[in-house]
Amino acid sequence: MVDTEKRKHSFMSDFKRFFGRGLGILLPSIVTLWLLWQAFVFVFNNVAEPINRGLRVMSIRATPMLYHEDDRPSWFTVTPDQIANRALARRRDGLAELSESALERDIRLNQFRDEWNKRWYLDGLGFVVAIILIYLAGLLLGNYLGRQAYGRVEKLIAKIPGFKQVYPHVKQVVDLIFGENSTMKAFRETVLVQYPREGAWSLGFVTGSAFSEVRDATGGETATVFIPTSPTPMTGFVINVPRSEVITMDISIDQALRFIITAGVLTPEHVEPVVERPGRVPAIARAHEAAERAYAEQNQAGGESGSAPSDTPGDGPDDTPNDRPVGGGDVEDR
């Protein structure tokens, strides 16, 4: 009885462990493939397919100009019997009657679609045309005249009720990701700073040097650091930190973002456990020492500017080894 319970318990525990292990291995791949497939379906249905419909219509209209009547493809030919059968089918289904020319266009379009579907690679034309159009739009709107024209159109669009409440926010997000000043381009390096208190270290991204007012107030070189929040790194806090208190990390921005999005679950792949070596000073200790030296130098500079020259060691009469009394003469030992 006891052996049976042990075997049952062992089987259940092993099943849970191995099932969880298999789920952990397969689930990321399955979810990734599903997301990619959904993205592909969305782009195909909403971008590529409308372009393909336009290409089919343009091909049908261009065929009479490109081919002689005797050389036209078979799908272009529509017989009177086909038109009569299509009209009869519409009346039977209770649909509105169409003219013979409209029925002919509809039949020809369906025949061309059937020929199109026989060649699966033709569906990729929509993607190719979309990529070319986006490239041309970026090329035209990237110059001075294009930016000016687009700016005026954008101002008119932003005045439309309902549209102006949504468009600015969508534009900010798109510019942040894909624009010339996108987040990935604005971030220069990954750093470690003490935030939100001393002793608590947070990952951040240097976005540039602080402006002149901040540098004048701090009295030294200051870096502007963006501290992202987890799990949405698009939001966060902007702080100005003395450059001496900023520790540069040997990890890429992508790795740091992965670490932040997963709340520290996924760490940079190349980071190895820290092995303490004799005589090796940690980076945090070096930062503390640099901060203390900067603080001491700042205090010393302030003390020198606020004191009289006679207070400086070596400049006063009491520090001179051959001092004489005020009245003159040698000093005798009594």
What can you tell me about this protein's structure?
Helix 2 (80-92) packs across helix 3. With 334 residues, this protein is of the alpha+beta class. The chain is elongated and about 105 Å long. Strand 3 and strand 4 (236-242) form a beta hairpin. Helix content is 55%, strand content 9%. The protein has a five-stranded antiparallel beta sheet.
Low-confidence stretches: 270-277, 307-334
Radius of gyration: 38 Å
Strands in their spatial order, largest beta sheet: 4-3-2-1-5
Summarize the biggest pleated sheet.
Answer: 5 strands, antiparallel
Shape descriptor reads elongated
Structural class: alpha+beta
Mean pLDDT: 77
Helix content: 55-70%
How large is the share of residues in beta strands? 5-15%
The helix/strand order is HHHHHHHEEHEEEHH
Q: How many individual helices?
A: 10
Q: How many strand segments?
A: 5
Tell me the domain tally. Answer: 3
The end-to-end span amounts to 111 Å
Descriptive key words:
334 residues, alpha+beta, SH3 type barrels, 10 helices, disordered C terminus
Task: Report a brief summary of the structure.
The chain is α+β, with helices and mostly antiparallel strands.
